[in-house]
Amino acid sequence: MTAPHLSSTAAHYLHELDVALSNTDARVRSDLLDEVEAALDGLDGAGLIERIERIGDPRFVAAEAGR
């Protein structure tokens, strides 16, 4: 996780998501982190912020994943 080509903003968001997913099934956690990382890969500036806003707050994403 957290490829070196991600911006610091994307890496921070992924870290926050990882922490929020700490009580989630390991496979679900891994798959979701991979999916979000792919969605953020190569983005920066306004495009990155927009994508993060569409994905949502890491705590909300984690809560939804735990359903």
From TrEMBL:
This is Membrane protein. It comes from Conyzicola nivalis. It holds the Pfam family HAAS.
